[in-house]
Each structure stands twice: as structure tokens, then as C-alpha cells.
Design a protein that fits this description.
The complex is a heterodimer of chains A (330) and B (301). Chain A has a domain at 72-301: Class I glutamine amidotransferase (GATase) domain (Rossmann fold), CATH 3.40.50. Chain A contains 10 helices and 14 strands. Chain A has helices at 3-31, 41-45, 48-51, 85-97, 114-120, 136-147, 162-168, 173-180, 289-301, 313-319; strands at 72-77, 101-106, 124-128, 151-155, 191-193, 198-199, 210-215, 226-230, 235-237, 241-246, 250-252, 258-259, 262-267, 270-273. Chain A is elongated. Chain B is α/β, with parallel strands linked by helices. In chain B, the strands form 2 sheets. In chain B, strands 1, 2, 3, 4, 5, 6, 7 and 8 form an 8-stranded mixed beta sheet that branches. A two-stranded antiparallel ribbon of chain B has the order 9-10. The chains are: A alpha/beta (330), B alpha/beta (301).
Amino acid sequence: MEARDLTGPAVAFVVVVALIVGGAAVLPIFSGGDTPEVSNLAQQQADLDAVRVTAADETGEITMDSDATGKTVLVDKAHENEFSDEKLSTLVNTLVENGHEVRFVTQEQARGSAWNESLRSADALLVANPTQAYTPEQLAGVRAFNDAGGRVLLLSDPASSSGSILSILGLGAGSQQPSSGGPGLSSTFGVAGHSGYLFNMHEYQHNFKSIYATAGRGSLSQDVDRVVFRGSVAVSTDGGQRALTSIEQTKLSTTRRADTYAVAVQSGDVAMVGDTDFLAPTDAYTADNEAFIGNLADFLVSGQKTGNAPGPPSTESENGTGPTLPMPTL
Amino acid sequence: MNRDSSAASAKALFVVAIVAAVLVSSVLAPVAYDYTTSTQSEGTVSVITVSGTISASTVDGISEDLRNARTNDSIEAVVLKVDSGGGYVAPSERLYLEVLRTAEQMPVVASVQGVGASGAYYGMLPADEIFVLSSTEVGSVGVVSSGGSVPLPESVIRTGPDKAQPTADERRQTVESLKRQFVGRVMQHRGDNITLSREEVAYAKTYLGPKAVENGYADQIGALPTAIDRAAGMAGLENYDVTRQEPPQSLGLVLLTSQTDNGTMIYKRSAQTNGLVPVTRPLMVDEIAPYNPEVNANGSA
């Protein structure tokens, strides 16, 4: 076979390939290619107004109305309290700026008679989320302190459960009911809390656990329209005042029942608040939280404590103020 | 004698030819059968598997399958075979949009196997119908996120106070916005069937199959073949083929890949939240972000 015999087929091959490939290259020019039409589904589906969440206003200043000066507020840090210095800072700064003294009692400073000695020189006691049990002597000292007019502020988050704050303090119904004999809630301090946390799926600030509470009765609710608590426990009082109550349709996580739950109560010289987050600098100026913090500061320094209560340990033991002995209900 | 031998050899040749013909036919017959069957078929139903954690990698694969279904002229309907408890937020929305785009072109039916919750439920929302089993769980319409706000170590240098440091309230706002979007889309797509209010949906409860059919989270009790037949019926197909698109195997590798893709990812251990806090890439629809100690140790912005 000679080379020229292959020329014809080779030419035919090249022509056919050129026609097919060239045709394929030119075809999209006339057909417009195969790029599909793209619609912006993501934008069509986005309801921007519905998903816009605006930051809450943070305005106002924490101020105190009380004219009292030179009062001493004791902060319990002796019972492995789950309460950060950051949260404490707003209240401490307010008290110090208004001429009061804030003292912290550490675990070492609460041993033996030192606890009662610290209370003796104080006007108010702040206890937040304790996780370690109080000794009978310490409890007796707190009761004597409170009986003498010393103010006691209890703060409790749901995590530590307000039920446990009272049981840790030895003030739960179980230990006191037989002796106090009071109807219903028989906590010595006349305050108690529910288990679980409060939430509101209907009206809330940014999250279902950030509930609104409105003013109730008493000085703690003065100048307060509504506050925001982030993860709050419901508290109760026996004969005291409901200072702040959650708005309607607030539910308790454990029962899922909708109600207007008390989240801050005052019973004489004892107050209990079912939250600590509202004190944090990031939340202290939301809604009327700053007014409520000011009211708490006023509460702490407005007591009329008499005498040097609690007395020396020997006096206490003579009086027999153990946790199972009769104590007046506030 | 010669006549006898030539007759015998002709006979042997005849037998060999018969055997060869049978052998060749046994190869060609299935091809012919398939060809005739395919000519009888009016179209194809593509079964696309959605399983495991909804992540960027898994959604990439599913998106490719859905795109093929849209561009392949022979595919007339899609069935999503779902078995997933959710995953990351953004991939879940991508899955939702891909399914929506497909559902605009052809019938899409979801068939939930074990779980179709959270991000997986988000993804199947645009389906024309959702089939569940009696033991299937669907729902969990909500978002999970760590709270953030854990201080970064001093060794990390940032350009601004909000860099890699979202506050707890910013997180709450973000999660709330995502929740509204998720719940809104549930109401949009299931609104005609659903008997629950927007607020009740936002509780993020997971429902068992029969309850889901009752409250409108799903449409019918039925297994995968029923869903395939329903999808074919909606596409007007009496005789149809089924193709199955399975995801790539090894979930662990997928997660690892998705992590190392992003060199800026920083995770921190948080004492406050008692878990891991992803700093730069945040939100899960349902699950907690995987933790890679190497990324944690070498994390940089």
C-alpha cells in the first residue's frame, strides 16, 4: 500500500472531525448555551423584618435614695458561693460610692466564732448561691442577727435552686416546720423558692428564659416599671410582699403552668431575689434593672439593727438556738 | 468412512455453534431486557440520601445530587431519604434552598427513616409531602448555641473588642433571629396542615410519627417504597426507574475535613457553659460542635 492511497481517508477524517468539533463549538452561540436561569431563592425566602432582632436599650444610672451613711454590708463568700465578683461589682460600687462599707467573709474568716464576730459589726448580710452547708452556730448567728434588725438579702439562681439555698441555710420547711408551727411555708425567714426556672415563650427579651417582671409592692419595686431576669427562679413569701412579679404567660419549667410568679419578695428585714444575672454589668442597665439594683442597695442599708447581735457564742448556746429549735416566723 | 467422519465433525460444529449462541445470548439478553424496560419507563425517580450531621460537606454532596436531578431530563421526581438529627445552621439553610429549588421544578417527597429533626427537618420543609414511620421522630424546630463571652487568653491578639468575642446577649439575639427564621419557614411550608401555633412550634419539641401526622409536621405514615411510588405518581409516572444517590461514607472524615477547611476556627473550653465554645464558627441547629484539640491548640485568627 502506498502513502498516497492513505491521503483520501486522512483528508476525509480531518474534514469530518473539523465539522463535528466546529459545529459543537458554534452551536452554543445560536442556542444560547446551557446556563440555567438562576432565581435568588435565598432573598425571596428571607423575611428580613420578621427576623430582625434589635439590641435592648441600656440607659440610666444606679442611684440610692437612702440617707443612711456608714453602714456595713457583709457579703458571704465563705460557703463556696457561686456568685462572681463581676456580678457583685455593680452593687458593691453603688454601696461604696454612697459611703457604705462592703466586707467579704471568706471561708477562713468564717471559722469558729469569727463568723458571728463579723456579723456583729455588720448591718446587712448578702448571701448568694451558697453551695456549702452552714454550721448550726453560723445559722444561729444569722437568725440572731436578723432578729436584731439586721437586713438579709438572699439571691438564688435556678442552677443552685432556691430550694437548696434555704436548705443549705438550714431554713427549709423540713427542719423548721415542727418547731415554727407556722401555716404553709414555714421557713424561718418566711421566704422560699420553687424548683426549676421561669420562662415565657410569648413575650421575652431575646430569649425565652429572659423574662420580664413588673413592679409589685414595697420599697424594692420603687421607680421600677419592669426588669429583665435571665434565668430566674420563682420565689414565695409567707405574709411578706411580692416586690416583683413576672408578666402574664410566664411558665415554670417544672410544672409548665402559666402564672404571674413572684421573682423578688420582701418579708420584713429579709428579701429574696430569684436571679443574680441582673446584677452583671452587661444586664444592670437593661429595662429598669438599674432602679431595682438601687432599691436593693437601699434595702441593705435601711435596716435598724439594735444591739451587738449576734452575741458571743456562749450566749447563743445558752439560748439554745439550734436549727431545730423554735424560731419566730418573719 | 470419510462420509461418516465429515458428518460427525459437522454435528460437533453445530453443537459448538449452539453453545456459543446460548452463551452470547445469556450476555445480551439482560441488555435487551433492560433496553426494553427502559423504553417502557416514563421517567426516573431519584432517591437522595440525607443522613448524619448536616454539615457543609454533606450538603455539598446532596446539592450536587439535587442539581443532577434538576438537569437530567430523565429524572421526573425526587425522594429524600432522611435520617438525621440536624447539624450546622448555614448548611441546613443551604439544604433547604436546594430542596426548594428542586421542588419548584418537580415533585419532591421526603421519607424519614429514623430521625428527621432540627436541621434535617429544616431541609425537608419544601417537600410536597413528608412520609414518616410510626417510630420516626421529627421536629425540634430550634437552635442551640454556646453562650460565648468566655475571655480569650492574653496570648491571642485581636483587632477589636468584638473580634472572636461575642457577648452573651449578642448570642441570644443571633439565636433568636435564627429561631424566628426557622419557625417562620415551618409555618410557611406546613402552615396549611399544622395545627400548632407559632409559639407552640417554637418550643422545639420532637414528635413521634403518628403524632407528627396528627399535628401536621408530617403528612402520612409510610415507608420508602410508598414515598417513591407517591413521588412517581405526583410526576404522572406509571412505569418508572429508581436511582439511588448515597452519601460518601465515613462521617468522621467529613467532620474532620469541614473543620480543617477553616483555619480560623478557635475552640475554647468554658467553665461557665461546661463545654466547648466555638469562637469563630458558631451555631448548630441541634448538635454541639466537634472538638479538635489540634485546632484548639494552634488556633489563630
